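Researcher: Good morning. I'm working through a list of sequences from a screen, and I'd like to move beyond sequence-only analysis. For each chain I'm collecting a predicted structure so we can compare shapes side by side. This is the next one on the list. No need for commentary yet; just the structure.
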Amino acid sequence: MAEQTKIEGVYEIKIVQGPTLRAFEDIKKRLDDTKGAIRDMNKATRELVAEEQAINKAIAQTGQATAEQTAALARNKAQRDGLNKTLSEAVLTERALSAQYRELSNNLSGLTEHGLRFRDKMADATTVALQQSGIISELGKRHEQLSGAMEKVDAAMAADPKSYKMSTYTYIYQAAYGSPEVDQTTPEITKVEVSADGLKAKLFVSGLQEGHVHELQSAGVKSAAGQPLLHNMAYYTLNYIPEAGK
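Model: Good morning. Structure tokens for this chain:
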């Protein structure tokens, strides 16, 4: 009799959570399919990189590219650009599906209470603890001190596009750890607008690459007193460019 009650209890849980289970299974299948597609695209990218290296090696041996080699490199680049875009979209999809997968897993394992996730509770508790310790207040004061210590840039230097240098690259997404930097490009900084307070600069860039890491060097920018920037290197991964910005 006890065993029968146990079995009925299990079936009762499944009936209540039926929609969640179906959604969980659907998300898991989509997530697995997306991961498989990413693996296939990584393999294709590695093959294209190897093909490009072989062509460039052959060109280096002869000292001049043939028309066929030039055309092959152009086709290779077009294919890799397309793959990089599709791969970037797939990676974003994988992240979104992974988040949904975790949410549904929390629901099924009972970690959800009144719509508030376990991690949300921990975040709230951490925020309260930081406020009570005075750390957040101290950080606010430190921010004000640093802002007051900032010096204005030399407007002419900061407005000169030659004061900056930008390059881009990406990595091969693969199961093995690490990857060389591949598909390097050099976007052009066409214009710079310096703010009236001399603390900010807006760069206009031609040739941004979706899915690439963008490295910005600002070695030519100095303060009005001739001091260099404390940190003149910046990095940003551009995952997506809205259609309006293309």
